[in-house]
Write a structure and sequence with these properties.
Elements: E1 3-9, H1 16-30, E2 34-40, H2 47-57, E3 61-66, H3 72-82, E4 87-90, H4 102-109, E5 116-121, H5 128-144, E6 157-160, H6 177-184, E7 188-193, H7 207-221, H8 224-253, H9 261-292, E8 300-305, E9 321-322
Helix pairs in contact: 5-7, 8-9
Amino acid sequence: MSVSVVIPCYRSARTLPVLVNRLMAVLRELSTPHEVILVVDGSPDDTWRTAAELARRVDGVRALHLSRNYGQHNALVAGIREAEFEVVVTMDDDLQHPPEQIPLLLAALEGDRLDLVYGVPRREEHGLVRSLASRSVKTAMAGGLGIRAARTISAFRAFRTRLRDGFQGLSGPHASVDVALSWVTTRVGSVRVDMNERGHGRSNYTPGLLLRHATNMLLGYSTAPLRAASYLGFLIGVVGLLLGAAVLWDFATGDTTVAGFTTIASMIAIFSSAQLMAVGVLGEYVGRVHGNGMGRPTYVVCERVGSPAAPGVPRRPGGATVAVHAGAGSGPGER
């Protein structure tokens, strides 16, 4: 199988040369057509200069420069849409995903049984807090979005390039590659792979950002919060009926008091809280609808270095590509 490797890059000027050298060695051993697409996500350091130099110097390496930091998943979408070969492999730029493990992902895709394979670490590579936040995101995807394979999701994945046809219309800055892939296939598997420590610096994905990502996915790709607000309203209504019945019983039996302040204050507080929560959820959805009308792009490619690995493949005209997909807010993986 021919392979396109897509790597979103942010603050990785020191790790990219090592990563590309190891990656090209592995791809050459596979003896199959291949390419590496480095998508620099508006990094403020020398990452673009490093990626561009690698694209000029190493055959089969291409570099895309996004005009600003759109977020990891938006950068992945940009690279996936540029892929020329049969299988897309995505991986991080920090050397946590060893290129030597790629053959394991490709082997799992052999035949027609699977369309998408995730590389699951043999042992947890993050701390307790980060791991809990990551599990929360996966639980949100499994429960709220109905993705059965959510608990095996990782950024180290391989899938058949034809799957992207199912989300060519993906729009807005709240992109999620894993949600989009779940729209087009249920033939998903996983393999155990070795993971390394981060090669340099620290992860830009804090627990807070991961939880924010989960919230963005639930609000952007699911109506579960609206259903939760409806269930909450029903529950509060039942509580109100029970409180009303208790008050009527006290009145009928002569046990009622003149003040009744505690009961009334409690009921008002409960009902007000439920109403504000429901209004808040509706406001989030209305805000996103408003944002979609603003036409905010998913990403903008301002510069390319390197040629397509497959000669003769049609390319989009012009030096810069604007993905005209409307949305609102910052990208889910904005770093």
